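Q: Given only this backbone (306 positions), what sequence would you predict?
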């Protein structure tokens, strides 16, 4: 009986493989959590140092309009007003999303509902290629093409929020388009069949049934596009002018949170006020990323309820 008992209680090869798989998966999750928590701790602790160690007023940081952390103002306080960069980031993000959304909707509807399979095979790689182009390439094209065109048709130096908007428009267009195509394909087929059976035309079915049924997916795609636009650094930095001034229109040089970070982080000493102020800008970007993710999850849940 004893050999039989040992044979029955002995772990099989498949069971040992399952255990090893669970162990590797668990260790991977722990490692990822440690990396994420370490990043969050580092950005949060250094970002808050501006207020806790350097005693900068939170209100002044978010409402003042002069950014020069290495200098003191007339009141003897460091000039660390981040409002111009915050407004610049929101302006290029919102304008790019407003510009890209109609084109993305039209492209996605054409690819998923109108184009034949051959057309889809041609357009799909084009969209994927645009998604995969590095941001520095977009920035270089913006520098040699978009900036001169903006200067020629709208005046000014060409560097400014308008040029940044055009570059971000091209960058987020494939992102919104790709995600919205997936949402359109997820609309149940019987929605289309029922609409056509009730006498609706093809365009009425498209507009009143398919597009309306995929509104939550469209909003999610737009939020993802805005999240990418808000966090984009290099391409925007090359065309926006990098002047940390309150935007005085779309044609004057301005700056975003990311452009100030990338241009200034290498010119500061760790632990000093100018360096801590840049970490605070990074903390704002982190919170904005979390905000966009929460909105995406909320929209996704509302879409599931429908």
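A: Predicted residues:
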């Amino acid at each position: 009986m004893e050999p039989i008992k040992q044979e029955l209680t002995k772990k099989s090869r498949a069971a040992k493989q399952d255990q090893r798989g669970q162990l590797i998966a668990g260790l991977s999750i722990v490692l990822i959590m440690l990396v994420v928590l370490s990043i969050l701790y580092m950005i949060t602790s250094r970002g808050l140092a501006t207020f806790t160690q350097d005693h900068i007023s939170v209100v002044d940081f978010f409402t003042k309009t002069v950014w020069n952390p290495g200098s003191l103002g007339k009141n003897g306080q460091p000039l660390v007003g981040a409002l111009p960069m915050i407004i610049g980031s929101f302006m290029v993000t919102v304008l790019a999303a407003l510009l890209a959304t109609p084109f993305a909707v039209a492209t996605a509807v054409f690819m998923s509902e109108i184009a034949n399979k051959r057309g889809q095979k041609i357009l799909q790689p084009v969209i994927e290629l645009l998604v995969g182009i590095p941001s520095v390439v977009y920035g270089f094209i913006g520098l040699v093409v978009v900036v001169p065109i903006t200067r020629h048709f709208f005046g000014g130096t060409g560097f400014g929020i308008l040029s940044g908007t055009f570059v971000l428009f091209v960058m987020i267009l494939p992102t919104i388009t790709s995600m919205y195509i997936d949402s359109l394909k997820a609309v149940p087929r019987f929605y289309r069949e029922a609409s056509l059976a009730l006498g609706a035309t093809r365009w009425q079915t498209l507009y009143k049934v398919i597009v309306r049924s995929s509104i939550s997916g469209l909003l999610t795609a737009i939020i993802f596009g805005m999240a990418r636009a808000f966090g984009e650094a290099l391409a925007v930095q090359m065309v926006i002018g990098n002047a940390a001034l309150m935007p005085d229109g779309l044609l004057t040089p301005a700056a975003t949170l990311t452009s100030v970070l990338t241009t200034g982080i290498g010119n500061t000493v760790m632990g000093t006020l100018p360096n801590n102020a840049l970490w605070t800008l990074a903390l704002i970007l982190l919170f904005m990323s979390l905000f966009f993710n929460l909105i995406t999850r909320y929209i996704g849940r509302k879409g599931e309820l429908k």
